[in-house]
Design goal:
With 355 residues, the protein is α/β, with parallel strands linked by helices. The chain folds into 2 domains: 2-155, Rossmann fold; 178-340, Rossmann fold, CATH 3.40.50.2000. The chain has 12 helices and 12 strands. It has helices at residues 14-27, 40-43, 45-55, 81-91, 111-130, 190-207, 220-231, 246-254, 271-278, 308-320, 322-340, 342-354; strands at 2-5, 34-37, 63-68, 95-100, 133-136, 153-155, 178-182, 212-216, 237-242, 258-261, 283-287, 300-304. A 6-stranded parallel β-sheet has the order 2-1-3-4-5-6, with helices on both faces. The protein has a 6-stranded parallel β-sheet with strand order 9-8-7-10-11-12, with helices on both faces. Helix 5 links the parallel strand 4 and strand 5. Helix 6 (190-207) packs across helix 7, helix 9 crosses helix 11 and helix 11 (322-340) packs parallel to helix 12. The relative contact order is 0.11. The mean pLDDT is 91.
């Protein structure tokens, strides 16, 4: 099988990590997944498509899992080049499966936003028609990118791009209560995230002696100063670790007591939240339209989006109640093994392709 990727994301590429982890899981069952990148950003579209035409001469009848995010195929989200890529593969008679990592279209009220959204809708719906199978990382009923009667689509959740935990109780910090935040969104929405994190940690500091907040992942170092200002002297120690190798991220998660997730409502497309589950953490988060099974089988405590009070109360309860913590920890380990491990995801994906 082929996994086809667009432009590389920096400083980390979650889609590439997804394909590599999937490939390792496939290999256990004798399936080979070869990663091929279309370097349109480096070569230009014409040369990249010519190169793809040459590379794909032997792909007839092979499953080609084409990975879609709007920005992987366009610098500004106008992903028309993606259809050119699919056109080449159709000419080569490859068996097309499109993995839609973007389940929603871009927002915005400007004219350019509406044009971009219309472009994305047309590209995604056309891709769905051309593909033999379509994979989404959220339940199909809550994926706006799909047409209403999406019979060729299937839901396969994301897995964690960090090593999973294998031992009960290895995520419990005994000496000091530690809350981890994995990744902060860029400048567009970071203000609300900072406000949510600061509100929760200020409330935690009233019930827990000098808690520790650890920031890891994208934009975590950039968010540190704003968080210190927003906490306004509250008795909270902040450590911003930045972007780390996967093993160090996993170790940071395992030595924390809870994950606070405020990058919008939690869902199965949020790899950073899945990483917390994979490491046995209770995850405190906002719920939304795409929050459902199997995610709700994990150790998650949910609050309605925007309800800072309930979110903070849930975090305090997780940190103070040992019995609650142990139950959520057990549920996260169970969900990881049965739903979010790469072996489970590979099995689910193969069953979709075989139908």
């Amino acid at each position: 099988m082929i996994a086809l990727l667009g432009r590389r994301d920096n400083p980390t590429d979650g889609v590439e990590d997804y394909c590599k982890n999937l490939g390792r899981a496939f290999a256990k069952n004798g399936h080979d997944l070869k990663l091929v990148r279309v370097p349109w950003a480096e070569l230009g579209w014409i040369r990249a498509l010519v190169r793809l035409w040459r590379q794909s001469r032997d792909w007839e009848g092979q499953w080609t899992l084409v990975q879609y995010t709007a920005l992987a195929w366009s610098r500004h989200g106008f992903s028309l080049g993606f259809l050119a890529v699919l056109g080449v593969l159709k000419k080569r008679h490859a068996q097309l499966a499109v993995v839609f990592h973007d389940a929603e279209f871009y927002g915005g009220a400007r004219v350019v936003d509406r044009i971009r959204r219309g472009c994305q809708r047309w590209v995604v719906r056309t891709s769905y028609r051309w593909a033999f199978r379509s994979i989404v990382t959220v339940p199909t009923a809550s994926a706006p990118c799909l047409p209403p009667d999406a019979t060729k689509a299937a839901f396969v959740p994301l897995g964690a791009n960090v090593p999973a935990s294998s031992q009960n109780g290895d995520g419990k910090s005994r000496e000091r209560k530690t809350v981890v935040v994995f990744g902060v969104t860029g400048a567009g929405t970071v203000g609300s995230e900072i406000a949510d994190i600061a509100y929760c940690m200020e409330k935690v500091s009233r019930h827990v002696q000098r808690p520790q907040l650890v920031l890891v992942g994208r934009d975590s170092k950039e968010a540190e100063g704003r968080l210190r200002h927003a906490l306004n002297g509250a008795s909270v120690d902040i450590i911003a670790r930045g972007v780390l190798p996967a093993e160090e991220v996993a170790q940071t998660l395992r030595t924390s007591d809870a994950m606070l997730f405020v990058r919008g409502p939690i869902s199965t497309k949020r790899g950073s939240a899945i990483a917390g589950i994979a490491c046995g953490l209770p995850v405190v988060a906002y719920s939304g339209p795409q929050t459902g099974p199997p995610l709700t089988e994990a150790g998650v405590m949910l609050a309605p989006r925007g309800d800072q009070q309930r979110l903070a109360d849930a975090l305090v309860q997780v940190l103070r109640d040992e019995q609650v913590w142990q139950e959520l920890h057990r549920r996260s380990l169970y969900a990881q093994q049965h739903h979010f491990s790469w072996d489970a995801i590979a099995d689910r994906l193969m069953s979709v392709l075989d139908t």
